[in-house]
Write a structure and sequence with these properties.
The chain has 5 helices and 7 strands, in the order βαααββββαββα. The chain is of the alpha+beta class and about 180 residues long.
């Protein structure tokens, strides 16, 4: 058989996972989750700077400038960063791999073949629970192979974890 007559492989071949942008975005509520930390730290920082400005006369102007700087940074990290981050945080589970993309400044993409998965876990901190979100963690034997998909709907995270656990049990050989 002439190899040149073989049909071309599709762009995203199911035989070999490719490093590509995953199809699914995280839940839109993740933007709210990503706003909570900077907002809380910003408010605490501004309050602390104002207290210093009131109590320490020599540091009044430095503390006021610090409060303004903290407030501006808090506004940027609360209003802009979560929206930007949401545009790039993606995930996908295909027939043969788990894809993850994260980062708001530096992009990080990871592919974990199903056969390499060792542990699938979900976790939800207090704010995630309040918002009905969870983080899905997929771990391999490689230290670089762990991915955390934060900001998933809690039920989607649980269902995906259960599905991946069942699918990985089909691979009984040592995939390390």
């Amino acid at each position: 058989m002439d190899p040149s007559s073989d049909p071309p492989l599709p762009a995203h071949s199911e035989v070999h996972p490719t490093l590509r942008e995953p199809a699914n975005r995280v839940d839109p509520r993740a933007k709210t989750l990503w706003r909570i930390g900077p907002l809380v730290l910003g408010v605490l920082g501004v309050v602390a700077a104002v207290v210093v400005a009131v109590v320490v006369d020599e540091a009044r102007w430095a503390a006021v400038l610090g409060a303004i700087l903290i407030a501006v940074l808090a506004v940027v990290y609360t209003a802009v960063v979560p929206v930007w981050r949401y545009r790039f945080h993606r995930w996908e589970v295909s027939d043969d791999a788990v894809y993850s993309q994260s980062g708001w400044f530096v992009r990080h993409r990871v592919i974990i073949p199903i056969a390499r998965i060792q542990v699938v876990d979900t976790e939800a901190g207090p704010f995630e629970q309040l918002l009905g979100l969870a983080t899905l963690t997929v771990t391999t034997a490689s230290s670089a192979g762990t991915i955390h998909i934060a900001g998933l709907d809690a039920e989607v995270a649980r269902t995906t974890a259960a599905d991946l656990t069942i699918r990985t049990q089909a691979f009984t050989d040592d995939a390390t």
